Amino acid sequence: MKKTISFACLIACTFIWGTTFIAQDTGMDNIGPFTFNSVRFFVGFLTVAPFVLLFEKKKVYEQIKVKRNQFYKLIIPVGIFLFLATALQQASLLYTDVANSAFFTIFYVPMVPIIVYFLFSEKLHWSIWPSVLACVIGGYLLSDVGDANMRFGDSLVLVGALFWALHIIYIGKIINQFDLPFFIALLQNLVVAALSFLLAVIFEEIDFSKIKLETFEILYAGILSGGAAFALQLFGQRNISVAPAAIVMSLEGVFAAIAAWIILNQILGLNNIIGCMLIVGGILLSQLAPIYEKNYK
User: Which structural domain range is residue 17 located in?
Assistant: First the structure.
């Protein structure tokens, strides 16, 4: 039952992430990527704060008091990896289109099992590898990447995918040791907002009248993605290991394509539909194969 709830949390998380791609792209019509991320994640911080006060105020003191140093060792890389991943992804949208950004972001799916297998020596079920392959091929078909030339924006996303992978891995580590999903989401939002603000001050002009023009996009990306989705990711990864979780989260490409079809009237071709089916098939294989083997051995 717990695993089912976690699976549902990850699906909800990826739905929000997928639809947020459009808000991220249109939200930079008047402001720069670092300004957008700074305000977006500060809104996410404000969104999560009441839940920390309501549900985790006592637990924060009790759990961190016992393992304070360990908590800092994990929360700092979690915040920095999220900052680097979101900064590179947001900046990439200035140089490449949403389709390419969605495709190259999905490369965190193969990176996660490779990192945990070779660097952390974790055992993986055999179904992970064909599932990863299905998700990457599905992402390619879904995104309509017409040529193999790596533009500057695509390179940014690909480097960002490494930090997405590391963020997923370290979220798995911290949530297994500290049952504080809202507090962890709160702190990582604060880290990303602060570091993004620092870059915005250095490289961009902060104009509040222009920020107001992006109010809808900032609130959508802040409340739903920065606040709700990252909290849902933490709830989801409590009972699902990092490699299968990364495969499930690749579903954001499917939701991004469907959102573009509904909102932007973009047509879903045969390749897009096959891509969706491959990603869904990869997710089902990674989740059902271990259960089947366990029940019928």
Answer: 2-128+146-242
- Number of domains comprising the chain: 1
In a domain, 264, yes or no: no
286 part of a folded domain = no
Task: Please report the pLDDT score of residue 144 as a whole number.
Answer: 58
3-state secondary structure of 136: helix
In a domain, 39, yes or no: yes
Determine which of 55-59, 77-81, 222-226, 248-252 has the lowest per-residue pLDDT on average: 248-252
22 domain-assigned: yes
Helix (H) or strand (E) holding 271: helix 270-296
Q: How many CB atoms lie within 10 A of CB 126?
A: 10
- Locate tokens 């809202």: which residue? 182
Tokens 């969605």, located at residue: 102
Is the CA virtual torsion 278, 269, 90, 221 positive or negative?
A: negative
Q: Does the reported pTM lie above 0.70? A: yes
Q: How many CB atoms lie within 10 A of CB 269?
A: 11
